[in-house]
Amino acid sequence: MLGYISGSIKDRNANEVLILAGGVSSGVGYVVKTPDHPRYDHFIPGQLAEVYIYTHVREDALDLYGFLSPSEKNFFMTLLSVSGVGPKMALSLLSHSDEATLINMILEENKVAMTGISGVGKKTAERMILELKDPIQKKIDAGVFTTPSARTARGGSIVEAATGVSRANPMFIEAYLALQGLGYKEVQAKQMVENALKKLGKADGDKTRIEDIIKQALQG
C-alpha cells in the first residue's frame, strides 16, 4: 500500500495530479486526487511535488488521495471515521477550507459554518461534531495535528489566535460566503472579511450588519 510519492508533475486538473515517480523517461505515473484548494496551486506541470498518500480500495477501483503533510492526511482519515462520510465528501471538505479552519469549526461546534459547505447537511454536521470533537482534541494534545494549539479546548479559536478575527463567527461565515457568491476565491474572500472586520473595529462582528462587512470588504 502506497504511503508517499515524490516526483515531477506531468499533468494536473482541478483535483487530480499526475506524478511521475522514478524519473521522467523511465518512471511510473500515479494519478493522485488532491483537494481543489489554493494551497495546492503550486502543483503545476514541470514542478516537483511530494504527497502523503491514502489508498482507498473498492471492488471496482483503487484511488490514491494525496496531501501536503502527514497531519492533513491524518485529518482526512479522521473524517472518514464518521458514519456517512466517504472519501468524496472528506476531499470536498478539504477543498472548501484548510485543516485548521475545519478543526476549529468542529471544536467550536459551529454548525452554521459547517452546513455552509457544499454537501454538508445539518445531520452530517451534527454527526461530525459528535463523533470527532473528542478524538480531534486528543490528537491535538498528542501533537498529531500540526495546527495552532492556543485556546482550542478552552473556548478560543484556532484562527482567531493567529488573526485576531474569529472565522467561526456566523457573521464572518455569512459574509465570506456572500463574497464567494460574487466570484471571489475562498482564501481571498476570507482575507477581505478579516480586513473589513479589523477596519470596522469589531473583530467579532456582533454589532455589525452583514451589509456593512461586505461593503467594507469590497471597498478594501
Walk me through what this model shows:
The protein has 220 residues and is an alpha+beta fold. The chain folds into three domains: 4-68, OB fold (Dihydrolipoamide Acetyltransferase, E2P) (Beta Barrel); 70-160, 5' to 3' exonuclease, C-terminal subdomain (DNA polymerase, domain 1, Orthogonal Bundle), CATH 1.10.150.20; 169-220, Orthogonal Bundle (Helicase, Ruva Protein, domain 3), CATH 1.10.8. It contains nine helices and five strands. The protein is globular and about 60 Å long. The model is unreliable at 148-164 (pLDDT under 50).
Keywords:
alpha+beta; 220 residues; 17% strand; OB fold (Dihydrolipoamide Acetyltransferase, E2P); 5-stranded mixed barrel; globular; DNA polymerase, domain 1; Helicase, Ruva Protein, domain 3
Low-confidence stretches are 148-164
Percent of sequence in beta strands: 15-25%
Indicate how many domains the architecture comprises. Answer: 3
Residue share in helix: 40-55%
User: Can you count the beta strands?
Assistant: 5
In the CATH hierarchy, the third-tier topology of the largest domain is known as DNA polymerase, domain 1
CATH architecture of the largest domain: Orthogonal Bundle
What's the multimeric state? Answer: single chain
Cα separation of the termini: 49 Å
Order of helices and strands: EEEEEHHHHHHHHH
The side-by-side strand order for the widest beta sheet comes to 1-2-3-5-4
Instruction: Kindly name the structural category.
Output: alpha+beta
